[in-house]
Amino acid sequence: MIPLTHRYRRLRKSNAILNLVAETHLHADDFITPLFVTEGNGKTEAIPSMPDYYRHSLDTLLRRIESLMQKGLFNYVLFAKIGDEQKDNTGEFAARPDGLFPTAIQKIKAAFPEITLFTDIALDPYSTFGHDGIVKNGQIVNDETVEALCKMSVVHAQAGADFVAPSDMMDGRVGAIRQALDGAGFQDTGILAYSAKYASAFYGPFRDALDSAPGFGDKRSYQMDIRNSREALRETALDIAEGADMVMVKPALAYLDVISKLKAEFNVPIAAYQVSGEYSMIKAAAEKGWLDEDKAIVETLTAIKRAGADIILTYFSEKAIGLI
Ligand code: PBG
């Protein structure tokens, strides 16, 4: 026998011990579930690049939320798929109180006041160019876009959004939105800032879901360069100074280092978004029989939480709560 002082396998002897010494636990309260709303009635539309995930008309969406609530999920982030006839290059439709998005917010909160509803703030679903901002001479213009985002945010707050979640990555939008919300009497509407949002390949399936792929170029003039992490600290510090209540890293799995850095540096709640491409990658490999889907879900979500995320936006929330 080797005289070993430390035998770590003593802590791995049974499930009970493993659970007792586990440093990371996933819980339904960790998750924010993304929802996609579309015009019409009675619709549950498949999204080909996101197997088992659906776009809903408002009526079927309400039923879906009810069933998710019964399973213990109370936090949601809403996205809207906008018809082509309501897309332009001004964001004007995004600020119409009777549009699909505010109507959905209002109906969801009326039906389920106890849930937390986050709403996506960016112009891409409303943009003929599929960009998050207003386009002039082939450029995405910052300050005019921020004005449009402020109007959009106030309309969402009016409709009952608990938190607006600017995902556009324009400079100065968090401070401007905070001011606009306060000015309109919505001091209690919060801001979840997409602070370190990278120009990532992993958003592809989401852009299919919302028909929002950029018509020209890419998003590298506003989303962050994948090569940088110190820049994420600067972006996040600024968003907090401008009034963000919570901050986010996105995507999650390829940016665990960024999540940890933010966690070490800041004391606000840190969210991470396991984005559409991260979802579809696991689904596709599992469909081929190359990965165990359930285990991959738990492993990736655990990694995101272990890295330091307090909150995880994930398309796997419903599945995950059955596995943890
Ligand atoms: C739009 C937005 C995107 C996502 C959330 N909000 C796409 C993009 O920036 O192109 C991606 C979410 C996902 O891939 O799951 N501003």
CATH H-level superfamily: Aldolase class I
Helix proportion? 25-40%
Q: Choose one word for the global shape.
A: globular
Structural class: alpha/beta
Our count of domains comes out at: 1
- The first-to-last residue Cα distance is 38 Å
Number of strands: 12
Oligomer category: single chain
Structure in words:
Helices cover 38% and strands 18% of the residues. With 324 residues, it is an alpha/beta fold. It has a single domain, classed as TIM Barrel (Alpha-Beta Barrel). The protein has an eight-stranded parallel β-barrel, surrounded by seven helices. The chain has a two-stranded antiparallel sheet with strand order 6-7. Strand 10 (246-250), helix 8 (256-265) and strand 11 (270-274) form a beta-alpha-beta unit. Helix 4 (142-159) crosses helix 5 (173-183) and helix 7 (230-241) packs across helix 8. The longest helix is centred in the middle third of the chain and has 18 residues, at 142-159. The relative contact order is 0.13. The site of ligand PBG has 12 residues, from helix 6.
Descriptive labels:
8-stranded parallel barrel; 18% strand; TIM Barrel; single chain; 324 residues; globular; two-stranded antiparallel ribbon; alpha/beta; binds ligand PBG
Write the topology of this structure:
Blueprint: H1 15-21, E1 31-37, E2 44-46, E3 54-56, H2 58-70, E4 75-80, H3 100-111, E5 116-121, E6 134-136, E7 139-141, H4 142-159, E8 163-166, H5 173-183, E9 190-197, H6 204-210, H7 230-241, E10 246-250, H8 256-265, E11 270-274, H9 276-287, H10 293-307, E12 311-314, H11 317-321
Parallel strand pairs: 1-3, 1-4, 1-12, 4-5, 5-8, 8-9, 9-10, 10-11, 11-12
Antiparallel strand pairs: 2-3, 6-7
Helix pairs in contact: 3-4, 4-5, 7-8
Ligand PBG binds at residues 120, 122, 124, 132, 167-168, 203, 206-207, 219, 275-276.
